[in-house]
Amino acid sequence: MEVKPVRQRLNLQSSGCHFAVGMDPLLSREEKYGHPTERAWIEIDRDALIHNARTLRSLLPPGCELMPAVKAQAYGHGAVLVARELNRIGVRAFCVATVSEGIELRKGGVKGEILILGYTHPSRISSLRRYRLIQTVIDYPYASVLNDCKKKIRVHIGIDTGMHRLGERCDHFEQICSIFRMKHLKIEGAFTHLCADDSTEPMEKSFTQGQGTAFFETMKQLKDQGFSCKKVHLQASYGVLNYPELGGDYARIGIALYGLLSTGADTERCNIVLKPVLAVKTRVAAVKGLYCGETAGYGLSFTAKREMKIATVTIGYADGLPRALSGGTGKVLIHGFEAPILGYICMDQTIIDVTDIPDVTQGDIAVVIGKSGGKEITACDVAQQADTIANEVLSRLGQRLTRMVVS
Ligand SMILES: *Cc1c(COP(=O)(O)O)cnc(C)c1O
Fold it and tell me: Is pLDDT above 50 for 358?
């Protein structure tokens, strides 16, 4: 087999890649503007992100703004990178899960409101203030703890209308009123979270509508008591698609912004065009022959039933490739061909079958999520193979993968 120098092959699939972040400025033009020299990386399609944001924004009722969920590194896409792109098209509010995620956005220069959806230890109040973050009030006891710190804190009150995760129960109206009376809390909003809005079946529909009614009824009663807050919100991706009439001032959209829904079936069924934002690519580290009867990988888990050509690609479960894809369950794409995964996926590497793929060479690019030739593997495909949802696959993509913007 002829081995071409890696350098020559770098531009093989590099159409339209002209901006990369976090790269060594001394790299050659080819390396800088073509594919990276990393072992495995994530390419972010800026045009797709902007398309999704604009499409979703057009679905929102008047007065309702996007508050993209950029928690967990923007579902693996890179939080600062995504939020800054969205800043540029006028998105002015974001939500994250943790105070550290909020700080990272600020340090990355992200502008606008940043709401922390989850628990923050009271000892970190100074960070909330320093980085102009908005904290969710988880319930009445948490509100008291925050208030006892005697420092002005911006908050949105979480209201539990049926998910029973975070939020003060909506039937604890007196406690909610007491939160409004707390001197040190600057209450700028209130929100609830819908937990069955991915379905429009009768039971889920009446449950979701019940959540909406309970939330807006609570807001109305608060107003009657003289308590008001600027922003109320309850929608996430599925809510905007399935129950647009529920409205609100913000739509906390996560998964749809990244160009897909939790499952392939949902993505196909939804009546808007979403474009996947992310591709995961890796390199072929080695190509070798295998004689009939030989095994490959840990635990002798794969045995060749014929003479084969196999390759090792430089991505593993530590990078977020689910180990559940082992043993032929998953595949990657090389030169537009499917290469099944052989044996157990390792922490940093994966062995694939390239017997029927011509000219696979050390340094070639393999696509784990994304397109190659006429074929595509989506995060939903991977999720289905791993018996989970795309949200989990994306959000677990590892820190070792360099994120870069293309297009
Ligand atoms: C993660 C999250 C969202 C975003 O949900 P998607 O289904 O990804 O759109 C919205 N609100 C809350 C409270 C969340 O935790």
Answer: yes
